[in-house]
Each structure stands twice: as C-alpha cells, then as structure tokens.
Amino acid sequence: MTTLPIPGAVRLGLVIDLDICVGCHACAVNCKEWNTGGIAGPLTDFDPYGAKPDGVWFNRIHSYEVGDGPAGQTVHFPRSCLHCENAECVTVCPTGASLKRVEDGIVLIDEDKCIGCKLCSWACPYGAREFDEDVGVMRKCTLCVDRIYDEARPEAERVPACVSTCPASARHFGDLGDPASAVSQMVADRAGMALMPELGYRPTNRYLPPRAKGGGCSSHGNAPALEPAVPEGTGFLGWLDRLLSH
After folding, report:
1. What count of other Cβ atoms lies within 10 Å of the Cβ of residue 81?
2. What is the mean pLDDT of the chain?
3. Which end of the chain is more exposed for a tag (fewer CB within 10 A), N or C?
4. What share of the chain is helix, strand, coil (3-state, %, to 5)?
C-alpha cells in the first residue's frame, strides 16, 4: 500500500461558483480535448456518435432542481477529482501508481505502474476516477500539470483547461493553502464548502454555494424606480414613451 506524504504548504485546486455555473459542459469538453492530446491522453471513446456513447471524462456535470415554487432553481454541479489531503485512493493502491505530490498537493496516477485493479476507484467517494478499458488503467483529473507549469505559456494562461474555457468565469484556480490567495479569499467571502467533509478526506477543491433566489417575478417590487428613458413632453418620442407606459 502507498503512504501519503506530509502535506506541503502549497495546495493547488479549484474553486467552483455554483451560483453562476450555467451547465454548458464547456469545461468537460475542453478538458476532454486537452487531455486527449496531453500527458494523460489519449482518452478512450466508445461509440461516440451512437445510441450509447461512453468513454473517459475527467469532468462531469450534474444538474439538480432545488427549492419549490418561486424560490426554485436549477443548480449545475461540476465534478472532478478534488485532490484530497487524506486521499484514500492513494493509500489503497498496491503498486504505488496513485500518488500525491508534496510540492503542490496534486493527486496523480503513474500509468506505468497501474495494474487496473480499480481499488482506488472503490476508495474514492466522489466517483472521480475513470477506468480506461482500452488500455486497462485508471485515469483522472491532473489539474492540467502540463499546462500550469508550462513556462512557454503566458502566466495568465497557466491554468487548467476547464478554467480557461468557462464562459461564465465560474471556475477559478489557485493555491488554497495560502489564506491570502485570491481563491482563498473567495472561499472566505462566500463561505465556500468542501464536498462531504464528514468523510474526513479533506478535499482541496471548494464550491461556492448558490445565492438564495427570492420571490420570483414579484421580487422586483422593492427595486428603485427607473428614470424615464425620454423626458416627458418632448416631441414624438415623449408621446410614444407615455403611450407605452400605460
């Protein structure tokens, strides 16, 4: 079995804002595209254009209906490896293929050592590990280590593929071990949550909860009155504005 290292000061991970995630799957698709050609690739697809497509995806998005009546809303929940501090997927590995890096806290798989026994996937309560039937090894999110440490890229682009492509800016990347980092401040300001903390795995990634939605269509009742678009009594446009206001 594999031993976890003493945690380092740096804990790289993701912060995902559930309030603004629109469930577009851009993160999943760009992750798939990048990792198919990156260090984790190729990622297997089975019958991708058929009736029952299947394959290896590091990111998956689940959608839920939350609340009742006017307060009801759809919450989109992206899920990938959480790079846990107490990563039992690492400790159950009989060959040392699953490992947690000391320098940044990222959990990785050495595919040359993986025998496909699936013990790590059974130990992961988040369902973050993917078995590639084509090659008989486990695969998972790497936080795009081949992107974030690529010094040939501009510094602003050294983020995971899922973060770079999110159209709503719902995904953020940084050092969650540094209380002064932008992602840590975001978590503190919005009461960011760990997924199933009661299990004791201490996941690095955090989710920002959706803000409460109140009142449905009647919620605008307390909004300040808008100024008229056209001053009253000014020619044809003023007449049209008064007409449409009734």
Report:
1. 28
2. 88
3. C
4. 25, 20, 55
Q: How far apart are CA 174 and CA 153, in angstroms?
A: 17
Neighbouring CB atoms inside 10 A of 7's CB total 14
Pairing of strands 12-17, 206-208: parallel
8 Å CB contact between 94 and 117 = yes
**Strand runs (DSSP E) across the chain, as ranges?**
12-17, 45-46, 54-55, 60-66, 73-79, 98-100, 107-109, 130-132, 137-139, 171-175, 206-208
Residue 38 near residue 197, CB atoms below 8 Å: no
Alpha helices in 12-144 (DSSP H): 26-37, 88-91, 119-123
Q: Is 151 helix (H, G, I), strand (E, B) or coil?
A: coil
Cis peptide before 42 (omega within 30 of 0): yes
Q: Do residues 208 and 190 lie in contact, with contact meaning Cβ atoms separated by under 8 Å? A: yes
55 φ/ψ angles, rounded to the nearest 5 degrees: 160, -170
Looking at residue 241, its pLDDT comes to 59
Q: CA 137, CA 96: separation in Å to the nearest integer?
A: 13
- What is the rounded average pLDDT of the residues 171-194? 97
- Token digits of residue 153: 């890229």
Instruction: Report helix, strand or coil for 96.
Output: coil
Instruction: Give residue 30's region: left, alpha or beta (phi > 0; psi -120 to 50).
Output: alpha
**Predicted local confidence at residue 109, as pLDDT:** 96
Residue 221 pLDDT grade (very low, low, confident, very high; cuts 50, 70, 90): very low
Three-state DSSP class for 119? helix
Question: CB count, 10 Å around CB of 159?
Answer: 20
In sequence order, what are the residues at sequence separation of 6 or more whose Cβ sits closer than 8 angstroms to the Cβ of residue 64?
Answer: 74, 75, 77
DSSP 230: S
Query: Token pair for residue 167?
Result: 């159209």
